[in-house]
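Practice problem: predict the structure.
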Amino acid sequence: MNAMKQILGCIRKADQDYGMIADQDRIAIGVSGGKDSMLLLYCLHLYQQFCTRIQSKQFEVVGIHIQMGFPNMDFMEAESFFRQRGIRLELVPSRIYDILKIQSNEDGSLKCSLCSTLKKGAVNRAAKDFGCTKVAFAHHGDDAIETLLMNAIYGGRLATFAPKMYLSNAEMPFIRPFIYARENQIRAAVGACGVPVVPSTCPMDGFTRRQDMKEMLEHLYTEYPMARDNFLLMLHNEKQLSLWHKENPEDEEALISKSKS
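Answer:
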């Protein structure tokens, strides 16, 4: 169970560093069926027991699975696994797949960004319906690094998602307890504790820009192994942050407008 100890240690560090979980919280966990979110629900349940016993901090966890409408998604095994362990998992119907098909790209492919927006909105609404005080998603350290590179390559900016934030449009705090966990640790923990994984039936699975980032990073880590830990370190190494600062900064939009005229 060393893999599980590592994951629980990552959750505890994230909670301590960013104050993610407060006493009497009820945390909604977005559960897609993939390894990351399934493990997060299970691990937060275990962390809940630890906090109650050791830290006198009590909170609840509620797993929320938005039924996207993709064909052949079977959650029976997942429901049974969590029910046997006294872990609450709610299945919430939606018409997201129907909307995605109507709003598809010209080539018929689905819009991943729209899917993400619709899914997060559905989870937030369900969280409020179930009286939750926070929403947790299972984005991990490797996701954060991939997001940084995607923003740099496609957006010309150095930015990744925050460990903890307040979603003003949803009026809901949002946390990511897996930010210090790596994908290989998650995979090992899932195998060690037998958490079931529901295979994705999304037609876009494996054909995204994020998948390109994963493959590029794995190639880079093979060539430069030290980068794997250093890339995660750089996301919170604020003392060594050094970027350019203009002495006479111009408004970026004005600068772009001048270049086009």
